[in-house]
Design goal:
This protein is mainly β. 6% of the residues lie in helices and 46% in strands. The strands form three sheets. Strands 3, 4, 5, 6, 7, 8, 10, 12, 14, 16, 18 and 20 form a twelve-stranded parallel beta sheet that branches. The protein has a six-stranded parallel beta sheet with strand order 9-11-13-15-17-19. A two-stranded antiparallel sheet has the order 1-2. About 5% of the residues have low confidence. It holds the Pfam family Pentapeptide. InterPro entries: 5peptide_repeat.
Length: 231
């Protein structure tokens, strides 16, 4: 497997005030073989392959491993990816009403323009991952571990980071409906350029960076949560 190029990619929200920006490696798989996805199955180990318009609806890919692979416009409806591994790979224009990827591993991965309904990535591990654009109705990262992750220009209806551990994570120019950080452990997590309508588990925001406007918008809800009367 070709070692990833180590030139770091900085998030659009530059680090200030002691908040470290994510450090991302360039993901650019080359020398790929174009294959059909008909024979993919659980616990497969694939490397240096490209799949175009692959229909993986209802496919059992539990424990499968993909290294330096590219998936272009895959259909992932009800695909079972529990415990799967994606390393130095690209996933573009993917469609999944339900994405079942609990306890999966994503390392040096670029996800472009996902259209996901319910994305179950609880207890997953994401390291050096960039998600760009797209729309996700419900992103369940409860109990997940995120290190050097950028989510940019993405619309997320509900983001569940309950119990998650994050380090150098940035949400850049995103729109989030409800953000749940109950019992989360956030370190160097940048939310400054992102809009969110509501936050559950305010205590879990410890370690995150927000801007003054976000603080003013959250103030009434925070006061009510703390039982503070503002008169």
């Amino acid at each position: 497997m070709t070692p990833p190029r180590r030139s770091a990619v900085r998030s659009a929200a530059s680090a200030t005030g002691g908040t470290d920006a994510p450090r991302l490696d360039v993901v650019d798989p080359r020398g790929l073989v174009d294959l059909g996805a008909d024979l993919l199955g659980p616990h497969d180990s694939r490397e240096l392959e490209r799949y175009v318009d692959a229909d993986l609806t209802d496919r059992d890919l539990e424990g499968a491993s993909f290294a330096e692979c590219v998936f272009e416009a895959p259909r992932l409806g009800s695909a079972r990816l529990r415990g799967a591994r994606l390393v130095e790979s690209v996933l573009s224009d993917s469609f999944a009403p339900e994405l079942a990827a609990a306890r999966s591993t994503w390392r040096d991965v670029r996800v472009e323009r996902p259209r996901w309904g319910s994305a179950e990535l609880f207890d997953a591990e994401l390291r050096s991952v960039r998600i760009v654009g797209g729309k996700i109705d419900f992103l369940n990262l409860r109990g997940a571990r995120l290190t050097d992750v950028v989510v940019e220009g993405c619309s997320i209806g509900e983001l569940d980071l309950g119990g998650a551990e994050t380090m150098r994570v940035a949400f850049v120019d995103c729109r989030i409906g409800t953000l749940d950080v109950t019992r989360a452990s956030l370190a160097h997590t940048d939310l400054r350029t992102t809009e969110f309508a509501g936050v559950d588990g305010f205590e879990g925001l410890r370690g995150a960076t927000i801007d003054h406007l976000q603080l003013s918008l959250l103030a009434p809800t925070m006061a009510a949560h703390l039982g503070v009367v503002v008169d």
